Amino acid sequence: MGRRETEALAESAAGAGTARRSPPTERVVQVLDHLVARPGVRFGLSELARELDLSKPTCLGILTALTDAGYLIRDPVDKTYGLGPALIVAGRAAQRGFASGPVARRHLAALVEEFGVMCSASAVVGDRIAVLDVVGGHGTAAAARVGEVYPFAPPVGLMYVLWDTDERIEQWLRREPTLPVSVDRDDLWRIVTDCRRAGYLAESLTPGGRRLYALMAGVVSHDLAPEMREMLAELVTSPGERVLTPDAFAAGEKRAVNLVAAPAYDPDGHQSLVLTLHLEREVDAAGIERCGAALVAVADAITVDLGGRRPGR
Fold first, then answer.
1. I need a surface site. Which of 25, 44, 205, 277 has the fewest CB within 10 A?
2. What residues have CB less than 8 Å from 264, skipping those under 6 apart?
3. Biased-composition ranges for Low complexity (predicted)?
4. Distance, first Cα to last Cα, the chain
5. Do residues 148 and 184 share a domain?
6. Are both 63 and 190 inside the same structural domain?
7. Radius of gyration of the chain from its Cα atoms, rounded to whole angstroms
8. Model pTM score
9. Do residues 158 and 190 lie in contact, with contact meaning Cβ atoms separated by under 8 Å?
10. Do strands 255-257 and 149-151 pair parallel, antiparallel, or not at all (unpaired)?
11. Which pLDDT score, from 0 to 100, does residue 169 have?
12. What pLDDT, in 10s, does the model give residues 182-202?
């Protein structure tokens, strides 16, 4: 190769390297990397600009664009920024190449086939409940969609701590309520005892309760006007009214069941996922027991395949 060709090749390589670099894009990545590395922390504009050595106008432009796209969320009260629900969808797509995605989907697909239902996997991500995966039942009427987020605070989210330690339940109870409702602690601990003994939770939501959950998807409680929060609170039923156990049925009685849920655990024996079978039909006590036993078996299999363990094992 002659000198002229060598110089042309060098210039071409240098040009390609320059073309691959985009300072504005790098600043966006810098902001996301900073927040991803600190998932439980929220930052104000000035703090982020200072820590990332960005001008406040530049940082604000990036934060606004990412918030508008759902990659970040902005707390309207303290004006801080944290990771948003759009990252869940992106992360779920990436997760399919790793172990947990295929493992959970394979086991849930068996339930979909057996019961003809939709199943989902969800977890607490930061301070929100996020739907991470859905198998079967796709369509406009789906009971859950990947990327949906819900507030993780009373009265929403009991099943995400129900099979964990008592302290984690108390931590959940101490969170600022999503809606202005009181929780009957005696009733709640009775439910905890029953569901821990059964290994699963079955829930029957009223039409109003189902509308409430649909309205709460993606909502930050602080975004709601006080009168709206009070109106939604009227739709809330106590856990004792919506959580069903087999002994709640009279002989031969059928009741509408929206979902059955059971936990998968991490290596430390804490809840890591909630697996949900969206039944959406009337069943009797035997039907709930059959669904619950099948779901618990699937949750246990996912726990083992992902290297987790049930508490006490």
1. 25
2. 104, 271, 272, 273, 274, 275, 299, 300, 302, 303, 306, 308
3. 9-22
4. 68
5. yes
6. no
7. 23
8. 0.67
9. no
10. unpaired
11. 94
12. 778 888 899 999 999 999 999
